[in-house]
Design brief:
Layout: H1 22-30, H2 46-64, H3 68-80, H4 139-149, E1 152-157, H5 162-167, H6 169-177, E2 181-187, H7 195-204, E3 208-212, E4 223-228, E5 235-236
Parallel strand pairs: 1-2, 2-3
Antiparallel strand pairs: 1-4, 4-5
Length: 237
């Protein structure tokens, strides 16, 4: 699901979640074959709803800009109308180059091992569906890269298997070496969790493990990783 609002070019019967714009108002009133339901946007939700609406329009305009310089100029024009006096500090920086730069890592001066600052193939700002298809990133490879830069790791998993732990042994060892908190919640449902895997998580990798033994009323079947970073660029699988 996209966070940006869809820019409508026609109105078909169905459910919507679109801000009422001048264009949309005109389209609705020009169609005598439909009736429509309008509701107020909660005041607390208005900033996010409007930002999502503008995001689609801004992205569309930036795509039509032919050069990086034109995109930088457009960003400057947008920021210049904001009431925040510091907004222009967020203009894209240019250093005698027609390329737009992105900060990918900040490392201590003199660092000799940059493996801790490796990035996953999926950008932190993207939402992606992983299918393990050929020529696409695998979950194991992405997790290895994610664990390398994580400052806290939480795992919620119905079953913990030794084979899965073994795939991430090096990265889990590095987490312990860096004193990164690793928390795991799992279950004994169907007896599928390997005791060997839990022992390794606790004894070899320093994980804090909680086990749900309730199997009569609870059917936990979640599989989720949450990776937090002090930079604010958190990810979840």
């Amino acid at each position: 699901m996209s966070g940006a609002q869809i820019i409508l070019t026609s109105v078909e019967p169905g459910v919507y979640e679109s801000l009422l714009t001048v264009r949309l108002h005109r389209m609705l009133n020009a169609n005598a074959d439909v009736v429509f339901d309008l509701n107020d946007v909660d005041e607390a939700e208005q900033p996010l709803a409007i930002a999502r609406h503008l995001a689609g329009l801004i992205e569309q305009a930036l795509r039509t800009a032919r050069t990086p310089d034109a995109r930088v100029a457009m960003v400057r024009d947008i920021l210049s109308v904001l009431p925040n006096p510091d907004a222009l500090q967020e203009v894209l920086y240019e250093e005698g180059s027609d390329r737009i730069k992105r900060l990918d890592a900040v490392m201590p001066a003199g660092v000799t091992d940059s493996s801790r600052y490796v990035r996953p193939a999926t950008p932190f700002s993207d939402t992606a569906l992983m299918t393990n298809a050929r020529d696409e990133p695998t979950l194991a490879a992405e997790l290895r890269a994610e664990l390398a830069s994580a400052d806290q790791v939480d795992l919620l998993c119905a079953f913990v298997k030794w084979q899965g732990v073994r795939l991430l042994e090096d990265e889990l060892s590095e987490l312990k070496k860096r004193k990164v908190k690793l928390r795991v919640i799992t279950t004994t449902y169907l007896g599928a969790t390997d005791a060997r895997a839990l022992d390794a998580l606790v004894n070899e990798f320093g994980a804090e493990v909680r086990i749900n033994y309730e199997i009569n009323q609870t059917r936990l079947h979640a599989k989720a990783w949450m990776l937090r970073r002090r930079t604010g660029f958190h990810t979840a699988y």
